[in-house]
Specification:
about 280 residues, Aminopeptidase, 2 domains, eight-stranded mixed sheet, 11 strands, globular
Length: about 280
């Protein structure tokens, strides 16, 4: 334990590391490539390579180059993810191999807070056959296309236009995960439809909150906070003990800190640098 008697941060990070190794295995197989586990999905979302669970010893730029080459050979987008505190030398190796390394604050839910639901908004969990599943995916796409927390361009008209060209078959993988509880989707909506969305993916007693997004022109209303709070509540009802997330930036991390999350570490993601 730490000096204050709390569970050590290192133990918490190891639990998160084990989760990050386990969650891709719910829909992908792992191929060992040097010191990495390369997760390969035949359908659905593409995954990444991660340092093998429990790996000790250095990881070199050559190791990174080998796993990236394997991803390219398989027709996958080259990508490596890891926790800085667990594999501290990988950022240097990835940079030396020519990859761009992104840094994301890693936060764990700590303090239950009363997060108000904005007037006129309904927060609800979607069923696997819910008509709003497509809208939730479109809203996520629009939200992440305009990074940050500032109000921006993109609202219900853009959502509805995107929905008109959305293929129902594209949602089959997500609906299958929702049906068997591998993914839980929460939305915030008004009479015009979905305005914000987010999900979590429980494995055992740990879950990660992912994909929290709000239509850019509906930001700064507390919709994302209300969705996040409901995701946490859903996870706790399921007996989950550790609820964590990776924030897109320090600015976004501060938003999550206001709804009961505490920063415990740093997540890294690396991919080939985009030419100028």
């Amino acid at each position: 334990m730490d000096q204050d008697g709390s569970v050590t941060r290192s133990h918490l990070l190891l639990r998160i590391e084990a989760y990050l190794d386990a969650v891709p295995r719910t829909s992908a197989h792992a191929e060992l490539v040097g010191p990495f586990s390369l997760f390969v999905a035949e359908v659905g979302w593409p995954f990444y390579a991660r340092p093998r669970l429990g790996h000790e010893g250095p990881i070199t730029a050559h190791d990174v180059e080998v796993v990236i080459a394997r991803q390219v050979a398989l027709g996958l987008e080259p990508s490596i993810e890891w926790l800085a505190e667990i594999t501290p030398d990988l950022a240097t190796a990835a940079t030396d191999a020519g990859l761009a390394v992104l840094t994301h604050p890693l936060l764990v839910h700590h303090d239950p807070l009363a997060v108000p639901v904005p007037n006129g908004i309904r927060i609800r969990r979607l069923g696997a056959d819910d008509d709003a599943v497509a809208a939730s995916r479109v809203v996520a796409g629009l939200g992440f296309s305009v990074p940050g927390t500032e109000v921006g361009a993109g609202g219900t008209s853009e959502r509805d236009e995107a929905l008109s060209g959305h293929a129902a078959a594209d949602d089959a993988y997500l609906r299958a995960r929702m049906a068997d509880g591998r993914t839980v989707v929460i939305v915030a909506e008004d009479e015009a439809g979905v305005l914000a969305t987010g999900s979590h993916q429980p494995v055992g007693d740990v879950t990660e909150i992912v994909g929290v997004a709000t239509l850019p022109d509906h930001r700064r209303r507390g919709l994302g906070a209300a969705v996040t709070d409901t995701l946490v509540a859903d996870a706790l009802r399921r007996g989950v003990q550790v609820v964590f997330l990776s924030a897109g930036s320090d600015e976004v991390a501060r938003v999550y800190e206001r709804v009961g999350f505490t920063r415990v570490g740093t997540a890294h993601a690396a991919s080939p640098a985009t030419p100028e």
